[in-house]
Amino acid sequence: MSLRIDAWTHIFPPAYFAKLQTIASAAGPLKRWMELTPLYDLEQRFPADGQVDAYQQVLTPSMPPIEDLAEGQAAVDLMRLMNDGLAELVKAHPDRFPAFAGALSLLDPDAAIAEIERAAKLGAIGFQICTHVRGTALDAPRFQPVFAAIAQRNLAIWLHPVRGPQPDYPTETKSHDEIWWCFGWPYDSSVAMARLAFSGISTGTPNCGSSPTTWAQ
Amino acid sequence: MSLRIDAWTHIFPPAYFAKLQTIASAAGPLKRWMELTPLYDLEQRFPADGQVDAYQQVLTPSMPPIEDLAEGQAAVDLMRLMNDGLAELVKAHPDRFPAFAGALSLLDPDAAIAEIERAAKLGAIGFQICTHVRGTALDAPRFQPVFAAIAQRNLAIWLHPVRGPQPDYPTETKSHDEIWWCFGWPYDSSVAMARLAFSGISTGTPNCGSSPTTWAQ
Q1: Which residues of A touch B171 (CB under 8 A)?
Q2: CATH architecture, domain A4-203
Q3: Residues A140, A131 contacting (CB under 8 angstroms)
Q4: Is B96 within 8 Å of chain A by CB?
Q5: Exposure letters A188-215 (e unless 16+ CB within 10 A, then b)
Q6: DSSP assignment of A168-181
Q7: Phi (first) and psi of residue A158, to 5 degrees
Q8: What is the pTM of this model?
Q9: Lowest mean pLDDT: which of A73-77, A213-217, B59-63?
Q10: Residue of A102, A216, B62, B102 with fewest CB within 10 Å of its CB?
Q11: Average pLDDT over residues B17-36
């Protein structure tokens, strides 16, 4: 039987999950995530995994985005806490978790670049980046050095939508049938990818110093 | 060579185009449409058609939606003016225009149903309906008799997105690279179709008296 690798499975490392509950409200979307026990409870996660032979999970950070939780040093601390935790999970369970993609907050591009260097040494094979940064598009010039830092290390990017449960129509107060993410997330990802591609970042801009194929995996 | 039929080509019939210019501003989106001369000038439209042999166009109304232009009797008059004009074009050029889909305004469902009956007698093979009616979803109960009236006549629906050139991100004022329609229109169509399907209209509701496969073509 061939090995199957799920390349995008979210998780909360234990220390990060404990910290998250001290800084974020349990209401709304966060409550939704916390009800998904396999996100933070390995005992819940492992039996489900065991139902498929020869199956491994590449770990990625769970939502919410760090950009929505903290700024400054607190955001740096959350990046480190998440990435240290992901690295520990991979080290402790290499048969189940062959690799991880790290968390970044892009609010402070210099801090993100420092964390890219640090997490890469911990074994990160790439980074999860959200489709916008508090409403700012990823093709904003200030983010280009972040993409360059990832590309220079030949690492990949997991691009994650961050649209919340907004109504489907302006005359309504609530999305029906999970439409907000089922169609809204592919839309948000498409827009973000188009903006990046048309920004010229993929054809090698002066600020983006590496091969165009690296970051677009 | 096999016949090719383009099943969704917009047009402004001459009398409707003249009327439109008296009631709508030439600024913004309308200016955009008016610059597309084949939309209203058969002399411009025909040579382009002639470059492809064995090619025909099913005519459909050009945007903007009548719901955005008028209410009450003025909206009824616009529906009639558009549908009479489409029927005349089909009658005058049957070799180029084998059929047409009529215009409807759904603001007044009873008026829409009356126009469905009238336009069907003129030869309409279906109707173009917008993905929302001034922000109201198509699964609103008041629109169900309109869908039933179309289904009972075994006619088709052309579902048209109506999103305007909105910014891609809340921090911006203008969409880049035509993203607003290139990705926004498929999103809007997907949402509208999902809402209709999950509303139960496709499985035969009490208010929708015909086969579920008819209107969903």
Answers
A1: 135-137
A2: Alpha-Beta Barrel (3.20)
A3: no
A4: no
A5: bbbbbbbbbeebebbeeeeebebeeebb
A6: SSTT-SS-STTHHH
A7: -100, 110
A8: 0.86
A9: A213-217
A10: A216
A11: 78
Q: Quote the minimal CA–CA distance from B205 to chain A in Å.
A: 18
**Residues 130-189, chain B: which have Cβ within 8 Å of A?**
132, 135-137, 168-172, 176-177, 179, 182-184, 186-187
Which tokens hold the place of A157?
């990017």
**Minimal Cα–Cα distance from B142 to chain A, Å?**
15
Q: Which amino acid is at B132?
A: H
Q: So what's the pLDDT on residue A137?
A: 97
In this model, does residue A110 exceed pLDDT 80?
Answer: yes
Beta bridge mates, B9: B59
Confidence label for A45 from pLDDT (cuts 50, 70 and 90): confident
ipTM here:
0.84
Q: Find the CB nearest A176 among B171, B172, B195.
A: B195
Residue-range domain boundaries for chain B = 4-203
SS (H, E, C) A57-73: EEEEECCCCHHHCCCHH
Q: Tens digit of pLDDT for each residue in A19-32? A: 998 887 655 667 77
Q: Please answer whether residues A175 and A168 qualify as being in contact, where contact means their C-beta atoms are separated by less than 8 angstroms.
A: yes
Joined tokens for residue A68: 């929505």
